[in-house]
Design a protein that fits this description.
By secondary structure, the protein is an alpha/beta fold. Helix content is 21%, strand content 27%.
Length: 340
């Protein structure tokens, strides 16, 4: 499945994400030479409807159309089939950000493709890795790390002083790449939102210019630790707001709660009288822990303890394909000397 290119096909610079399938036969790994080695690894369009990463790459490579990049670039363009359909993934496809080494998914061609990418990056060498995504709901721009170490946090801080530390779900790109080099995921708000592509392009341009990543922890970062993933069981029907004959009615303003510390007792949903509908919650050990984080109070599902959510979105398809949200707690930066 993996297509390999030496040198960037310039005809791609003028194509929107939905048109890449006409030029690329599948997931494509493209090496663009630069003055410094080893290369920066960047992945875009692991989710086909998250187009900011591709738009950022277009901006950066257009600026260097007649110049040599300051550092070599290894670019992975991911799910071009889903991009053509303007969806996260096609029916029957696995999530392209759950197929990387360490995944709990059964073996398949997509998993073998991701393993080949990791092997090629490892053999080529890697300065750092950046995976660019969008959110479905209203969220700030933030960076994600899988290790609380100076270079990883420094890379994330190039994008945002808001950083999320997570170790689940398994099989994501950044977890696999963190075994090779400093790796981050960046979340750039909603696709097409003002300034999203420009912000991601600034990150890429800055990372390409770096000769090294500082070792110390950057000053002024706010770090959130993901502690649980909240899902709605597939057997439970749901909608937003009132008026539909479903088992669970989510609050229609939930996505305004992203990155806000919510007190115990905050209402997340109303449940139809007589229904046993409830959330499913997976903690960082993979255990079912819904009763630890939520309670049923009459016909309401409420937070049992204070928590900060991320990735809440009023989008049924996104919830069905991924999660309702992640719950986080604020943590102190690791005890290292802050970088100057």
């Amino acid at each position: 499945m993996l297509q390999i290119y030496e040198g960037f096909p310039e005809r791609l610079l003028d194509l929107e994400a939905a048109r890449l399938k006409a030029e690329l036969a599948g997931p494509s790994l493209i090496e663009v030479p630069g003055r410094r080695e080893p290369p920066l690894f960047v992945s875009v369009l692991l989710h086909g409807n998250e187009t900011t990463g591709w738009e950022a790459v277009q901006r950066v490579l257009s600026a260097y159309r007649s110049k040599t990049l300051p550092r070599s670039l290894l670019l992975l363009i991911g799910n071009v089939d889903a991009a053509a359909a303007r969806v996260r993934r096609l029916p029957g496809q696995p999530d392209f950000n759950r197929i990387w080494p360490g995944t709990s998914l059964e073996d398949g061609p997509e998993q073998r493709m991701a393993a080949e990418v990791v092997a090629r990056v490892r053999s080529r060498g890697c300065f750092a890795s950046i995976d660019i995504h969008n959110n479905t709901g209203v969220n700030p721009h933030y960076g994600c790390v899988n290790r609380l170490e100076g270079p990883y946090l420094q890379l994330a801080a190039l994008f945002s002083r808001t950083v999320v530390y997570f170790t689940r779900p398994h099989g994501v790109q950044s977890l696999a790449m963190a075994n090779i080099a400093p790796a981050i995921t960046v979340e750039c708000g909603q696709p097409g939102s003002p300034g999203a592509a420009e912000h991601a392009a600034e990150l890429l341009a800055s990372a390409l210019q770096l000769s090294r990543l500082p070792q110390g922890v950057p000053a002024g970062v706010s770090i959130y630790h993901t502690v649980a993933a909240v899902r709605i069981p597939r057997s439970v029907s749901f909608s937003f707001g009132a008026g539909e004959a479903v088992e669970m009615q989510l609050m229609d303003d939930l996505e305004r709660c992203n990155f806000r510390e919510l007190p115990a007792g905050t209402r997340f949903a109303r449940v139809r009288p007589g229904s046993g509908a409830f959330f499913s919650v997976e903690d960082n050990e993979g255990r079912e822990s819904a009763a630890e984080y939520f309670l049923r109070e009459g016909d309401e599902i409420q937070l049992r303890q204070p928590a900060t959510p991320a990735m809440l979105a009023c989008n049924e398809e996104a919830i069905r394909q991924d999660v309702l949200c992640y719950l986080m707690e604020r943590i102190a930066p690791p005890e290292q000397a802050a970088a100057s």
